[in-house]
Protein backbone atom coordinates (compact mmCIF):
# COMPACT_ATOMS: atom_id res chain seq x y z
CA UNK A 1 0.00 0.00 0.00
CA UNK A 2 1.56 3.29 -1.03
CA UNK A 3 1.81 5.81 1.75
CA UNK A 4 -0.15 9.05 1.56
CA UNK A 5 1.21 10.34 4.86
CA UNK A 6 2.38 13.92 5.03
CA UNK A 7 2.98 14.50 8.77
CA UNK A 8 6.24 13.96 10.67
CA UNK A 9 5.95 11.43 13.45
CA UNK A 10 6.67 13.01 16.87
CA UNK A 11 9.58 11.24 18.58
CA UNK A 12 11.26 11.40 21.95
CA UNK A 13 14.39 13.51 21.68
CA UNK A 14 17.84 12.54 22.94
CA UNK A 15 17.41 14.55 26.13
CA UNK A 16 14.21 12.72 27.08
CA UNK A 17 15.85 9.39 26.31
CA UNK A 18 18.84 10.29 28.50
CA UNK A 19 16.52 11.19 31.38
CA UNK A 20 14.82 7.83 31.00
CA UNK A 21 18.14 5.97 31.10
CA UNK A 22 19.23 7.92 34.16
CA UNK A 23 15.97 7.08 35.91
CA UNK A 24 16.43 3.33 35.68
CA UNK A 25 15.46 2.52 32.11
CA UNK A 26 12.08 0.80 32.64
CA UNK A 27 10.32 0.25 29.31
CA UNK A 28 6.92 1.22 30.70
CA UNK A 29 8.30 4.62 31.75
CA UNK A 30 9.83 5.23 28.33
CA UNK A 31 6.50 4.47 26.71
CA UNK A 32 4.64 6.69 29.19
CA UNK A 33 6.93 9.54 28.16
CA UNK A 34 6.30 8.81 24.47
CA UNK A 35 2.53 8.77 25.03
CA UNK A 36 2.69 12.42 26.11
CA UNK A 37 3.65 13.27 22.50
CA UNK A 38 0.30 12.09 21.16
CA UNK A 39 -1.77 9.00 20.26
CA UNK A 40 0.93 7.89 17.79
CA UNK A 41 4.54 8.59 18.73
CA UNK A 42 8.02 7.23 18.20
CA UNK A 43 11.15 6.37 20.15
CA UNK A 44 14.25 4.25 19.65
CA UNK A 45 15.69 1.30 21.53
CA UNK A 46 19.18 0.75 20.24
CA UNK A 47 18.92 0.56 16.46
CA UNK A 48 15.24 -0.33 16.59
CA UNK A 49 12.70 2.35 15.72
CA UNK A 50 9.46 1.84 17.59
CA UNK A 51 6.04 3.40 17.02
CA UNK A 52 3.79 3.51 20.09
CA UNK A 53 0.03 3.57 19.49
CA UNK A 54 -2.18 4.56 22.42
CA UNK A 55 -5.14 6.49 20.94
CA UNK A 56 -8.43 4.59 20.82
CA UNK A 57 -9.12 5.19 17.12
CA UNK A 58 -5.56 4.31 16.19
CA UNK A 59 -5.61 1.11 18.31
CA UNK A 60 -8.83 0.13 16.56
CA UNK A 61 -7.20 0.74 13.18
CA UNK A 62 -4.14 -1.41 13.92
CA UNK A 63 -5.80 -4.36 15.68
CA UNK A 64 -9.30 -4.50 14.23
CA UNK A 65 -9.30 -2.76 10.86
CA UNK A 66 -5.86 -3.58 9.46
CA UNK A 67 -4.73 -6.84 11.09
CA UNK A 68 -3.12 -7.99 7.83
CA UNK A 69 -1.00 -4.84 7.61
CA UNK A 70 0.06 -4.94 11.28
CA UNK A 71 0.93 -8.52 12.03
CA UNK A 72 2.32 -10.69 14.78
CA UNK A 73 5.79 -12.03 14.04
CA UNK A 74 6.50 -14.99 16.26
CA UNK A 75 6.08 -14.62 20.00
CA UNK A 76 8.31 -14.28 23.03
CA UNK A 77 7.00 -17.57 24.46
CA UNK A 78 7.54 -19.59 21.28
CA UNK A 79 10.50 -21.51 22.80
CA UNK A 80 8.06 -22.81 25.42
CA UNK A 81 4.75 -23.03 23.53
CA UNK A 82 6.03 -23.89 20.06
CA UNK A 83 3.37 -23.64 17.35
CA UNK A 84 0.36 -23.34 19.63
CA UNK A 85 -2.37 -20.82 18.89
CA UNK A 86 -0.70 -17.97 20.78
CA UNK A 87 2.46 -18.19 18.65
CA UNK A 88 1.02 -19.36 15.32
CA UNK A 89 0.54 -17.02 12.36
CA UNK A 90 -1.02 -17.03 8.91
CA UNK A 91 -3.00 -19.99 7.64
CA UNK A 92 -1.92 -22.41 10.43
CA UNK A 93 -3.27 -19.92 12.99
CA UNK A 94 -6.57 -19.66 11.13
CA UNK A 95 -7.00 -23.46 11.09
CA UNK A 96 -6.10 -23.80 14.76
CA UNK A 97 -8.42 -21.00 15.85
CA UNK A 98 -11.29 -22.42 13.79
CA UNK A 99 -10.90 -25.76 15.56
CA UNK A 100 -10.90 -24.33 19.08
CA UNK A 101 -13.28 -21.39 18.72
CA UNK A 102 -16.52 -23.37 19.31
CA UNK A 103 -15.18 -24.43 22.71
CA UNK A 104 -14.99 -20.80 23.86
CA UNK A 105 -18.36 -19.44 22.76
CA UNK A 106 -21.06 -18.93 25.38
CA UNK A 107 -22.50 -22.34 24.56
CA UNK A 108 -19.11 -24.00 24.58
CA UNK A 109 -18.17 -22.51 27.96
CA UNK A 110 -21.42 -23.78 29.50
CA UNK A 111 -20.25 -27.33 28.81
CA UNK A 112 -17.25 -26.72 31.06
CA UNK A 113 -19.11 -24.87 33.79
CA UNK A 114 -19.44 -27.96 36.04
CA UNK A 115 -15.64 -28.22 36.00
CA UNK A 116 -15.27 -24.52 36.84
CA UNK A 117 -17.77 -24.81 39.70
CA UNK A 118 -15.93 -27.83 41.08
CA UNK A 119 -12.70 -25.81 41.16
CA UNK A 120 -14.58 -22.93 42.83
CA UNK A 121 -15.88 -25.28 45.51
CA UNK A 122 -12.37 -26.62 46.16
CA UNK A 123 -10.97 -23.07 46.47
CA UNK A 124 -13.78 -22.09 48.84
CA UNK A 125 -13.05 -25.12 51.01
CA UNK A 126 -9.38 -24.09 51.32
CA UNK A 127 -10.36 -20.57 52.34
CA UNK A 128 -12.97 -21.85 54.78
CA UNK A 129 -10.30 -23.85 56.60
CA UNK A 130 -7.88 -20.92 56.54
CA UNK A 131 -10.50 -18.60 58.01
CA UNK A 132 -11.28 -21.15 60.74
CA UNK A 133 -7.63 -21.59 61.70
CA UNK A 134 -6.69 -17.92 61.39
CA UNK A 135 -3.61 -18.68 59.30
CA UNK A 136 -2.13 -16.08 56.99
CA UNK A 137 -2.41 -17.26 53.39
CA UNK A 138 -0.39 -16.40 50.33
CA UNK A 139 -3.49 -15.63 48.35
CA UNK A 140 -1.55 -15.14 45.12
CA UNK A 141 -0.55 -18.82 45.38
CA UNK A 142 -4.16 -19.78 46.14
CA UNK A 143 -5.40 -17.92 43.09
CA UNK A 144 -2.76 -19.47 40.84
CA UNK A 145 -3.77 -22.90 42.11
CA UNK A 146 -7.44 -22.16 41.47
CA UNK A 147 -6.88 -20.98 37.92
CA UNK A 148 -4.64 -23.96 37.13
CA UNK A 149 -7.25 -26.27 38.64
CA UNK A 150 -9.94 -24.75 36.39
CA UNK A 151 -8.00 -25.22 33.18
CA UNK A 152 -6.74 -28.68 34.18
CA UNK A 153 -10.29 -29.88 34.92
CA UNK A 154 -11.49 -28.36 31.64
CA UNK A 155 -8.69 -30.10 29.74
CA UNK A 156 -8.82 -33.52 31.36
CA UNK A 157 -12.05 -33.70 33.45
CA UNK A 158 -9.79 -34.42 36.47
CA UNK A 159 -8.84 -32.15 39.40
CA UNK A 160 -5.33 -30.79 39.53
CA UNK A 161 -3.01 -33.24 41.27
CA UNK A 162 0.05 -32.25 43.36
CA UNK A 163 2.65 -33.56 40.91
CA UNK A 164 1.12 -31.74 37.95
CA UNK A 165 0.88 -28.59 40.03
CA UNK A 166 4.57 -28.88 40.92
CA UNK A 167 5.58 -29.32 37.30
CA UNK A 168 3.43 -26.45 36.05
CA UNK A 169 4.69 -24.17 38.81
CA UNK A 170 8.26 -24.97 37.76
CA UNK A 171 7.47 -24.28 34.11
CA UNK A 172 5.73 -21.01 34.99
CA UNK A 173 8.96 -19.65 36.49
CA UNK A 174 10.42 -19.56 32.99
CA UNK A 175 7.26 -17.90 31.68
CA UNK A 176 7.40 -15.23 34.39
CA UNK A 177 11.02 -14.43 33.52
CA UNK A 178 10.26 -13.46 29.92
CA UNK A 179 10.90 -9.73 29.39
CA UNK A 180 8.20 -7.39 28.17
CA UNK A 181 10.01 -6.36 25.03
CA UNK A 182 13.14 -8.12 23.81
CA UNK A 183 15.82 -8.20 22.58
CA UNK A 184 16.15 -4.42 22.35
CA UNK A 185 15.75 -4.05 26.13
CA UNK A 186 19.06 -5.83 26.67
CA UNK A 187 17.53 -8.61 28.80
CA UNK A 188 19.32 -11.93 28.59
CA UNK A 189 17.58 -14.76 26.77
CA UNK A 190 15.57 -17.08 29.01
CA UNK A 191 16.74 -20.70 29.23
CA UNK A 192 13.63 -22.84 28.68
CA UNK A 193 15.34 -26.24 28.96
CA UNK A 194 13.96 -27.11 32.39
CA UNK A 195 10.56 -25.58 31.64
CA UNK A 196 10.22 -27.58 28.43
CA UNK A 197 11.02 -30.82 30.23
CA UNK A 198 8.29 -30.11 32.77
CA UNK A 199 5.83 -29.13 30.05
CA UNK A 200 6.46 -32.33 28.09
CA UNK A 201 5.72 -34.45 31.17
CA UNK A 202 2.54 -32.50 31.88
CA UNK A 203 1.32 -32.92 28.29
CA UNK A 204 1.90 -36.68 28.45
CA UNK A 205 -0.05 -36.85 31.71
CA UNK A 206 -2.94 -34.80 30.33
CA UNK A 207 -3.28 -37.05 27.29
CA UNK A 208 -3.27 -40.15 29.50
CA UNK A 209 -5.95 -38.69 31.78
CA UNK A 210 -8.12 -37.67 28.83
CA UNK A 211 -8.23 -41.30 27.75
CA UNK A 212 -9.65 -42.26 31.15
CA UNK A 213 -12.18 -39.44 31.48
CA UNK A 214 -15.90 -40.14 31.34
CA UNK A 215 -16.71 -36.46 30.77
CA UNK A 216 -15.56 -34.45 27.73
CA UNK A 217 -12.48 -32.23 27.97
CA UNK A 218 -10.46 -29.95 25.74
CA UNK A 219 -7.71 -32.55 25.36
CA UNK A 220 -10.18 -34.85 23.65
CA UNK A 221 -10.91 -32.10 21.12
CA UNK A 222 -7.20 -31.93 20.30
CA UNK A 223 -6.83 -35.71 20.10
CA UNK A 224 -9.76 -35.98 17.69
CA UNK A 225 -8.12 -33.33 15.54
CA UNK A 226 -4.87 -35.31 15.59
CA UNK A 227 -6.75 -38.39 14.38
CA UNK A 228 -8.55 -36.55 11.58
CA UNK A 229 -6.29 -33.69 10.43
CA UNK A 230 -2.75 -34.15 9.11
CA UNK A 231 -1.64 -30.76 10.49
CA UNK A 232 -2.27 -31.89 14.06
CA UNK A 233 0.93 -33.74 14.77
CA UNK A 234 1.81 -35.07 18.21
CA UNK A 235 4.01 -32.02 18.70
CA UNK A 236 1.23 -29.57 17.79
CA UNK A 237 -1.14 -31.28 20.22
CA UNK A 238 1.48 -30.76 22.93
CA UNK A 239 1.99 -27.10 21.96
CA UNK A 240 -1.73 -26.39 21.81
CA UNK A 241 -2.32 -28.11 25.12
CA UNK A 242 0.33 -26.06 26.88
CA UNK A 243 -0.87 -22.86 25.21
CA UNK A 244 -4.30 -23.48 26.75
CA UNK A 245 -2.71 -24.05 30.15
CA UNK A 246 -0.47 -20.97 30.09
CA UNK A 247 -3.01 -18.62 28.51
CA UNK A 248 -5.79 -20.17 30.59
CA UNK A 249 -4.32 -19.56 34.01
CA UNK A 250 -1.97 -16.58 33.91
CA UNK A 251 -4.64 -14.03 32.96
CA UNK A 252 -7.09 -15.25 35.58
CA UNK A 253 -4.67 -15.61 38.48
CA UNK A 254 -3.00 -12.24 37.96
CA UNK A 255 -6.27 -10.35 37.51
CA UNK A 256 -7.75 -11.90 40.66
CA UNK A 257 -4.62 -11.04 42.58
CA UNK A 258 -4.93 -7.39 41.58
CA UNK A 259 -8.65 -7.41 42.31
CA UNK A 260 -8.20 -8.47 45.93
CA UNK A 261 -5.48 -5.85 46.39
CA UNK A 262 -7.82 -3.20 45.00
CA UNK A 263 -10.71 -4.32 47.21
CA UNK A 264 -8.45 -4.16 50.26
CA UNK A 265 -7.76 -0.52 49.41
CA UNK A 266 -11.42 0.14 48.49
CA UNK A 267 -13.61 -2.01 50.78
CA UNK A 268 -16.64 0.08 49.87
CA UNK A 269 -16.56 -1.43 46.38
CA UNK A 270 -16.97 -4.95 47.76
CA UNK A 271 -19.93 -3.78 49.85
CA UNK A 272 -21.43 -1.98 46.89
CA UNK A 273 -21.23 -5.06 44.65
CA UNK A 274 -22.81 -7.31 47.27
CA UNK A 275 -25.59 -4.77 47.87
CA UNK A 276 -26.46 -4.65 44.17
CA UNK A 277 -28.78 -7.64 44.55
CA UNK A 278 -29.29 -10.98 46.29
CA UNK A 279 -27.02 -13.96 45.64
CA UNK A 280 -27.54 -15.33 42.15
CA UNK A 281 -29.29 -12.21 40.88
CA UNK A 282 -28.43 -10.60 37.56
CA UNK A 283 -27.77 -7.33 39.39
CA UNK A 284 -25.11 -8.82 41.67
CA UNK A 285 -23.50 -10.73 38.79
CA UNK A 286 -23.30 -7.51 36.77
CA UNK A 287 -21.75 -5.64 39.71
CA UNK A 288 -19.14 -8.37 40.22
CA UNK A 289 -18.42 -8.42 36.51
CA UNK A 290 -17.81 -4.66 36.75
CA UNK A 291 -15.21 -5.31 39.47
CA UNK A 292 -13.44 -7.64 37.05
CA UNK A 293 -13.67 -5.24 34.12
CA UNK A 294 -12.31 -2.32 36.13
CA UNK A 295 -9.46 -4.42 37.48
CA UNK A 296 -8.53 -5.39 33.92
CA UNK A 297 -8.68 -1.74 32.91
CA UNK A 298 -6.13 -0.77 35.53
CA UNK A 299 -4.04 -3.93 35.25
CA UNK A 300 -4.51 -5.60 31.86
CA UNK A 301 -2.42 -8.75 32.05
CA UNK A 302 -1.25 -8.52 28.44
CA UNK A 303 -0.07 -4.98 28.98
CA UNK A 304 2.08 -4.79 25.83
CA UNK A 305 1.11 -6.06 22.37
CA UNK A 306 3.80 -5.89 19.65
CA UNK A 307 2.93 -5.80 15.97
CA UNK A 308 5.05 -5.30 12.85
CA UNK A 309 4.24 -3.32 9.72
CA UNK A 310 4.04 -5.85 6.89
CA UNK A 311 4.32 -3.12 4.24
CA UNK A 312 4.77 0.63 3.85
CA UNK A 313 1.70 2.52 4.92
CA UNK A 314 0.39 5.31 7.10
CA UNK A 315 -1.23 5.56 10.49
CA UNK A 316 -3.10 8.66 11.60
CA UNK A 317 -1.37 10.59 8.84
CA UNK A 318 2.14 9.45 9.77
CA UNK A 319 4.33 7.28 7.51
CA UNK A 320 4.98 3.76 8.76
CA UNK A 321 7.77 1.87 6.98
CA UNK A 322 7.60 -1.86 6.37
CA UNK A 323 9.29 -3.74 9.21
CA UNK A 324 8.60 -1.04 11.81
CA UNK A 325 7.85 -2.32 15.31
CA UNK A 326 4.42 -1.07 16.40
CA UNK A 327 3.62 -1.34 20.11
CA UNK A 328 0.14 -1.16 21.60
CA UNK A 329 -0.28 -0.93 25.35
CA UNK A 330 -3.65 -1.46 27.01
CA UNK A 331 -1.96 -0.33 30.22
CA UNK A 332 -1.34 3.15 28.77
CA UNK A 333 -4.53 3.46 26.73
CA UNK A 334 -6.65 2.43 29.72
CA UNK A 335 -5.06 5.23 31.80
CA UNK A 336 -5.49 7.98 29.23
CA UNK A 337 -7.48 10.83 30.86
CA UNK A 338 -8.90 11.79 27.47
CA UNK A 339 -10.55 8.38 27.26
CA UNK A 340 -11.24 7.59 30.92
CA UNK A 341 -12.32 10.20 33.49
CA UNK A 342 -10.15 9.94 36.61
CA UNK A 343 -8.22 7.06 35.03
CA UNK A 344 -6.14 6.21 38.11
CA UNK A 345 -9.23 5.71 40.28
CA UNK A 346 -10.77 2.27 40.91
CA UNK A 347 -14.36 2.93 39.83
CA UNK A 348 -16.17 -0.26 38.72
CA UNK A 349 -19.39 1.74 38.30
CA UNK A 350 -18.06 3.12 35.02
CA UNK A 351 -18.78 -0.31 33.49
CA UNK A 352 -22.40 -0.28 34.71
CA UNK A 353 -23.32 2.93 32.90
CA UNK A 354 -24.80 1.75 29.60
CA UNK A 355 -24.84 5.30 28.24
CA UNK A 356 -21.09 5.81 28.68
CA UNK A 357 -19.52 2.80 27.06
CA UNK A 358 -15.83 3.10 26.17
CA UNK A 359 -15.05 4.17 22.63
CA UNK A 360 -13.90 1.42 20.23
CA UNK A 361 -10.22 0.85 20.91
CA UNK A 362 -10.30 2.42 24.38
CA UNK A 363 -10.62 -0.89 26.25
CA UNK A 364 -8.83 -4.02 25.10
CA UNK A 365 -7.44 -6.09 27.99
CA UNK A 366 -7.75 -9.22 25.81
CA UNK A 367 -6.79 -7.57 22.54
CA UNK A 368 -9.06 -6.63 19.64
CA UNK A 369 -9.94 -7.93 16.21
CA UNK A 370 -9.24 -11.39 14.84
CA UNK A 371 -6.30 -12.01 17.21
CA UNK A 372 -8.18 -11.11 20.37
CA UNK A 373 -7.76 -13.70 23.11
CA UNK A 374 -9.85 -16.75 22.35
CA UNK A 375 -10.43 -17.50 26.03
CA UNK A 376 -11.57 -14.03 27.14
CA UNK A 377 -15.15 -15.08 27.91
CA UNK A 378 -13.91 -18.20 29.68
CA UNK A 379 -11.52 -16.20 31.89
CA UNK A 380 -14.15 -13.66 32.87
CA UNK A 381 -16.72 -16.36 33.60
CA UNK A 382 -14.45 -18.29 35.95
CA UNK A 383 -13.47 -15.10 37.77
CA UNK A 384 -17.10 -14.09 38.26
CA UNK A 385 -18.09 -17.55 39.51
CA UNK A 386 -15.24 -17.56 42.03
CA UNK A 387 -16.04 -14.06 43.27
CA UNK A 388 -19.75 -14.85 43.60
CA UNK A 389 -18.69 -17.58 46.04
CA UNK A 390 -15.86 -15.87 47.93
CA UNK A 391 -16.86 -12.21 48.21
CA UNK A 392 -20.03 -12.74 50.31
CA UNK A 393 -18.29 -15.26 52.57
CA UNK A 394 -14.91 -13.66 53.30
CA UNK A 395 -13.34 -10.32 53.97
CA UNK A 396 -9.73 -10.42 52.79
CA UNK A 397 -7.34 -8.46 54.99
CA UNK A 398 -4.06 -7.96 53.15
CA UNK A 399 -1.20 -8.24 55.64
CA UNK A 400 1.70 -8.03 53.18
CA UNK A 401 1.88 -6.81 49.60
CA UNK A 402 4.82 -5.94 47.36
CA UNK A 403 5.53 -2.27 46.85
CA UNK A 404 6.66 -2.74 43.24
CA UNK A 405 4.90 -3.78 40.05
CA UNK A 406 6.72 -6.05 37.61
CA UNK A 407 6.27 -5.22 33.93
CA UNK A 408 7.51 -8.32 32.16
CA UNK A 409 5.47 -10.50 29.81
CA UNK A 410 2.63 -9.89 32.26
CA UNK A 411 2.09 -7.03 34.71
CA UNK A 412 1.92 -8.40 38.24
CA UNK A 413 2.72 -7.57 41.87
CA UNK A 414 6.44 -8.15 42.28
CA UNK A 415 6.26 -10.58 45.18
CA UNK A 416 3.84 -12.60 47.30
CA UNK A 417 0.53 -11.22 48.57
CA UNK A 418 -0.31 -12.46 52.06
CA UNK A 419 -3.69 -12.06 53.73
CA UNK A 420 -5.81 -13.11 56.68
CA UNK A 421 -9.32 -14.30 55.83
CA UNK A 422 -12.28 -13.27 57.95
CA UNK A 423 -15.72 -14.83 57.66
CA UNK A 424 -18.55 -12.35 57.18
CA UNK A 425 -19.65 -10.96 60.54
CA UNK A 426 -16.23 -11.10 62.25
From TrEMBL:
The domain of life is Bacteria
| Cofactor(s) recorded in Swiss-Prot or TrEMBL | heme
Answer whether the UniProt record assigns the keyword Zinc to this protein. no
The answer to keyword Oxidoreductase applying to this record is: yes
Q: Tell me the InterPro entries matching this sequence.
A: Cyt_P450 (IPR001128), Cyt_P450_CS (IPR017972), Cyt_P450_E_grp-I (IPR002401), Cyt_P450_sf (IPR036396), Cytochrome_P450_monoxygenase (IPR050121)
Which Pfam families does UniProt cross-reference here?
Answer: p450 (PF00067)
Q: Supply the alphabetized keyword list.
A: Heme, Iron, Metal-binding, Monooxygenase, Oxidoreductase
- Family according to the record: Belongs to the cytochrome P450 family.
Q: Under what name is this protein listed?
A: Cytochrome P450
Q: Which organism is it from?
A: Kitasatospora phosalacinea
Lineage at the top is: Bacteria, Bacillati, Actinomycetota, Actinomycetes, Kitasatosporales
Amino acid sequence: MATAATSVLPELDAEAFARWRAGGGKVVELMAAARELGPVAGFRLGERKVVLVTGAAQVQQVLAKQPDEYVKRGHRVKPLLGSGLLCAAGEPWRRQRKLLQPQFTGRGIRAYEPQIRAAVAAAAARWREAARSGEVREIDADLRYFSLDVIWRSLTAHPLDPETHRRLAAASEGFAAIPAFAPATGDAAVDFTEANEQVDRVAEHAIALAGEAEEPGLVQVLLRAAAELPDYTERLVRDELMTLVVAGYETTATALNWLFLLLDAHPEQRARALAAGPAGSAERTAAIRALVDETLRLYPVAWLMPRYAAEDGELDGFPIEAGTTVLLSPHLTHRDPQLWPEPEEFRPQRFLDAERRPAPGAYFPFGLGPRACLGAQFAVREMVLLLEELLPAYRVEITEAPAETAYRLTVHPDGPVRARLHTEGE
